[in-house]
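User: Just a sanity check before I run the rest of the batch. Below are the structure tokens for the first item. I only need the designed sequence back.
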């Protein structure tokens, strides 16, 4: 048995071919930190409570005065706290007694006149000096 198909073109047949072009790369959407020109400042505690430091070592970098200098600690122009002597770092929370006559204090602590205000202080306890010398003769 054979089947004969007779093709008689009545009309020219046009074939529609949809050509879809796919992206070869991902789209460049927004990402964080691209071409970042602002460098982080890394502010905060540099030395923890109980560590030993040398003179001149930076203890804290800060923009506003969150931490205050205590014993053997210096206060830089930009708010940096640094050790003035070698020793052990001790962080304490102490009662703060501001001068209420000062206008700046009145603005900052308005409504807290009858409350206890506590602040964090960085202290450096100096290492005891060696006692290896003997007194031989007084002048």
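Assistant: Here's the designed sequence for the first item:
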């Amino acid at each position: 048995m054979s089947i004969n198909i007779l093709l008689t073109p009545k009309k020219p047949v046009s074939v529609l071919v949809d050509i879809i072009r796919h992206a070869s790369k991902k789209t460049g959407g927004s990402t964080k930190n691209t071409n970042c020109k602002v460098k982080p400042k890394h502010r905060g505690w540099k030395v923890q409570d109980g560590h030993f430091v040398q003179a001149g070592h930076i203890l804290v970098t800060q923009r506003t005065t969150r931490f205050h200098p205590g014993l053997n600690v210096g206060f830089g122009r930009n708010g940096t706290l640094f050790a003035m002597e070698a020793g052990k770092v001790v962080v304490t929370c102490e009662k703060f007694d501001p001068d209420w006559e000062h206008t700046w204090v009145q603005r900052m602590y308005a409504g807290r006149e009858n409350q206890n205000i506590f602040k964090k202080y960085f202290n450096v306890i100096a290492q005891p000096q060696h006692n290896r010398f003997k007194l031989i003769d007084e002048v």
